[in-house]
Amino acid sequence: MGLKVFNTLTRKKEAFVPLEEGKVRMYVCGPTVYNYIHIGNARPVVVFDTVRRYFEYRGYNVTYVSNFTDVDDRLINASKERHISVPRIADEFIKAYLDDVGALNVKKATFNPRATETMPEIISFIKKLVDAGYAYPVDGDVYFRTRKFQGYGKLSHQSVDDLKSGVRIEIGENKEDPLDFALWKAAKPGEIKWESPWGEGRPGWHIECSAMVEKYLGDTIDIHAGGTDLVFPHHENEIAQSEALHHKTMAHYWLHNGHIQINNEKMSKSIGNVILVHDLIKKYDPQVIRFFILTVQYRHPINFSDELLNDAVQAFGRLKTAYYNLDHRLKGNEAVSEGPSEKLDQYRYDFIESMDDDFNTANAIAVLFDIVRDANIALQDEKSDAVSLAGYRDILEELSGVLGLKLEDQSESILDSDIEELIQKREAARKEKRFDIADEIRDALKEKGVILEDTAQGVRWKRGHE
């Protein structure tokens, strides 16, 4: 068994071999912080956080860098509209971003560099490209000579001539070639700006990531990742800049997650179907959102709808309920699983096999439900001992944790969906005359402040502390 990843550069699955044994250097393109992130932005954040967690589970030391683009046209426009400085807008939405992804249980990056805090490195990087003849200044702007870099188009698998047909020169641009792209932009009146050898201005979008990769991870890294929309031009241009300067491979593996559609339509402001994570986590348990994102292998498109998310509520509820039932049965019992056992080892093997196949979280989640199935059978069996039940609980917690899914109750109250799930379990137990289990569920809910009332019309419940 060995980890294989799909490399966008070669368009095939390849065995993962780190640059340095036991270590992974990983860069994931972060958000442009002019607004709250939407569900499409959340997918790469969750996906590559899970990739990082899996590497760490397998014993790797991961240096994980994800940037903030805190100066660009969108921030400048927002600044003009709101009459607030660009840095204030960036600070506002960086905080909002960290709050949102924190709710999704995303680990803090090793480094979260900002473009505005990397300006000396960005300017130095551009100057070296100019000195090497790969870039040229014109009227305060600086452009990269795309055709001079022989490998241009290798990531997106397009030829330079094919790319040229879809490019036009914007008003005010004085490029040598339509394919050339901006490394530095001369400041317009009233815009935020920095001093440079070419006059006051600000960096282009692509150059910040090349400079940050070099500063925090080195000339060559293991993994560069992001959404599939970044393959061209952003990542293509990063490769051109970095490899032109260093004459080395920028990243050994390029990983890209698929799009999210909303009710089978592309998400766009014009359609009005943009769903902000900030709003979504007020309506749904953030752990359900994370679970939903991971139910599809990361390279495949994923469709989002309330119906599908409600299905995820029920499915994730089954995981939590199984964990809760196991933990409740073991309360007051200090038993722990006895360590290696054939059954537990098989779950772990199946999980690792799934994740080793290009981080197939969909199949890994299927393994979690195999554990839930067997655990529920064991819970129904009076002969099940505490040690075996602890084994199910511990392996479920271990493998869910690799996916960043928290099964233990995070608050004093239990989710409505979990209450309904437990009531159904209780009703099934009563029909089977398993009154001991039915009583255990009633008591467990009571501990959570949930009071059950058995009526002629069925079971009603209310929160005792409300």
TrEMBL record:
ATP binds at K269. HAMAP family: Cys_tRNA_synth. A motif ('HIGH' region) lies at residues 31-41. Its EC number is 6.1.1.16. Zn(2+) binds at C29, C209, H234, E238. GO terms for biological process: cysteinyl-tRNA aminoacylation. It comes from the Bacteria. It comes from Sporolactobacillus shoreae. It catalyses: tRNA(Cys) + L-cysteine + ATP = L-cysteinyl-tRNA(Cys) + AMP + diphosphate. It is an enzyme of class 6 (ligase). GO terms for cellular component: cytosol. Transmembrane segments: none annotated. A motif ('KMSKS' region) lies at residues 266-270. SMART domains: DALR_2. Its cofactor is Zn(2+). CDD domains: CysRS_core. PANTHER family: CYSTEINE--TRNA LIGASE, CYTOPLASMIC (PTHR10890:SF3), CYSTEINYL-TRNA SYNTHETASE (PTHR10890). Monomer. This is Cysteine--tRNA ligase. Belongs to the class-I aminoacyl-tRNA synthetase family. Residues 350-414 form the Cysteinyl-tRNA synthetase class Ia DALR domain. One of its GO terms (molecular function) is zinc ion binding. It is found in: Cytoplasm.
